[in-house]
Specification:
Layout lengths: L2 H15 L4 H17 L1 H17 L4 H7 L3 H16 L7 E6 L5 E8 L2 E6 L4 H12 L3 E5 L5 H17 L9 E3 L5 H8 L7 E5 L2 H10 L12 E5 L5 H13 L8 E7 H15 L4 E4 L3 H11 L2 H4 L4 E3 L13 E7 L2 H11 L4 E5 L3 H10 L4 E4 L19 E2 L7 E2 L6 E8 L6
Parallel strand pairs: 3-4, 3-6, 4-5, 7-8, 7-12, 8-11, 9-10, 9-11, 12-13
Antiparallel strand pairs: 1-2, 2-16, 14-15
Helix pairs in contact: 2-5, 2-7, 3-7, 5-6, 10-11, 11-12
């Protein structure tokens, strides 16, 4: 890949797009949506090729689920574009304004970041989400997906490009580029594109994110890796706690907002853990600490679940806490108080999403104020940490850092600000 030529093209696209009105950008996105709908069968066929190749390579079911597209996921992508179109354009928004002591009028307004790069794994839906958010916020975008999703991404970007062409002067085709060779060399070029790429987002496994953070010379917004916890307080509703644990772990275990560790107050462990074990029925491999192991083991044994799956429980090792399994595996830790739970979570999490299940208002507020994470829930599944669920239509990623953006990144997260100062001859 000729990174100089690619970035120059994207810069030209970004400069042109920055001058477009909200109506022009919305028209272009509507044309892209129409092109994607017309290409649905081609995109799904391409995705089936990717899934078949990954299956043959022995990829886990959880990761295959992230790669696979079906009609439901495709329709969700399309609906996401509709939501983005319906959102207010942040460009030009006045964040603050005042008159300086010398009489100058100062305004702080939102502007696009410019050229945005994203390096991501699996999930071809990210291709559509990232493009739509970048385009609406006036940015061009460099897409570098994984080789496992290359056929899917090619088909999607081809439809996007066609849609932008159909939009006429409202469509900026130079605002999107897909890296197709799949080599590590192109990643190295992206990481070193100082002055050419304004910001880079890694989205995927902790290994990918850490590699980008360590090697990148361009500014990076850290996203994604999710070692998430659910804490069952001693004042929790047992039925609610079981349901939230199941959903947070099992609905999509390969997602970054699925929980990896269950933290349980000792005073409720004897009642809650057997109820949970019965509900899980051996479907999730439990890695239990010294207190939780006998409670879980005995319930699984009596229920006959060990006969069906002898690997459904084991003793937790030190490295099991703070590990992102991305699978039907859950570490279990017992603690003595909400304070101990908070300390344990802050020592092992990745600042993504954390939950407390409790009917105690003080414990709930203590947990939310003391846990260091982008999203902190009370009595709700961590699976809600998502741009679509937050009403953004889509997301570029889940930022787990504290600078610039945090949590699901929607349109406004892809903007920065500049100061506009109007005077009438003032000198200092």
């Amino acid at each position: 890949m000729d990174i100089e030529a690619v970035c120059q093209r994207l810069r030209t696209g970004a400069d042109r797009l920055a001058m477009h009105t909200a109506a022009q950008k919305d028209h272009a996105l509507a044309c892209v949506k129409e092109a994607l709908v017309k290409s649905q069968s081609l995109i799904l066929d391409a995705n089936q090729q990717d899934v078949a190749a990954s299956k043959a390579a022995g990829v886990s079911e959880a990761l295959l689920e992230r790669l696979a597209l079906d009609n439901k996921k495709f329709n969700s992508m399309i609906q996401g574009i509709d939501v983005v179109i319906g959102q207010r354009d942040p460009i030009g928004e006045e964040v603050a304004g005042w008159r300086a002591p010398k009489g100058m009028q100062i305004r702080q307004v939102r502007v696009p970041l410019g050229v945005v790069g994203i390096i991501y794994e699996s999930r071809p839906n990210v291709t559509v989400d990232a493009f739509a958010l970048a385009y609406k916020s006036g940015n061009s975008i460099l897409l570098r997906g994984s080789s496992s999703a290359l056929n899917s991404n090619r088909a999607i970007v081809s439809a996007i490009s066609f849609g932008l062409g159909q939009a006429g002067s409202d469509g900026v085709r130079d605002a999107v580029f897909l890296c197709e060779d799949g080599s590590h060399e192109d990643v190295e070029q992206i990481l070193g594109a100082v002055g050419k790429i304004d910001v880079l987002l890694p989205r995927g496994s902790s290994r990918l994110i850490n590699a980008v953070m360590e090697k990148a010379k361009v500014p990076v917004i850290q996203t994604g890796a999710g070692v998430c916890h659910l804490y069952v307080d001693d004042d929790a509703d047992i039925g609610m706690a079981v349901n939230l644990t199941r959903n947070s772990k099992m609905q999509r275990p390969g997602a970054c907002n699925a929980i990896e560790t269950l933290v349980v107050n000792k005073r409720i462990a004897g009642e809650f853990l057997p109820a949970l074990a019965k509900s899980l029925g051996g479907e999730v491999r439990l890695l239990a600490d010294e207190i939780s192991y006998p409670l879980l083991f005995e319930t699984l044994r009596k229920g006959g679940f060990l006969n069906q799956n002898s690997d459904c429980i084991d003793r937790a090792g030190k490295d099991d806490f703070g590990y992102e399994f991305l699978d039907f595996v859950l570490a279990v830790k017992c603690v003595g108080s909400v304070e101990e739970a908070v300390d344990f979570i802050n020592a092992h999490n990745t600042k993504h999403s954390e939950c407390i299940v409790t009917n105690n208002r003080w414990n709930a507020r203590y947990f939310q104020s003391r846990v260091d994470a982008a999203c902190v829930y009370v009595n709700a599944s961590t699976r809600f940490t998502d741009g679509g669920e937050f009403g953004f239509g889509a997301e570029l990623g889940i930022s787990t850092q504290k600078l610039h953006a945090r949590g699901p990144m929607g349109i406004s997260a892809l903007t920065t600000t500049k100061f506009l100062i109007d005077g009438d001859g003032q000198v200092r």
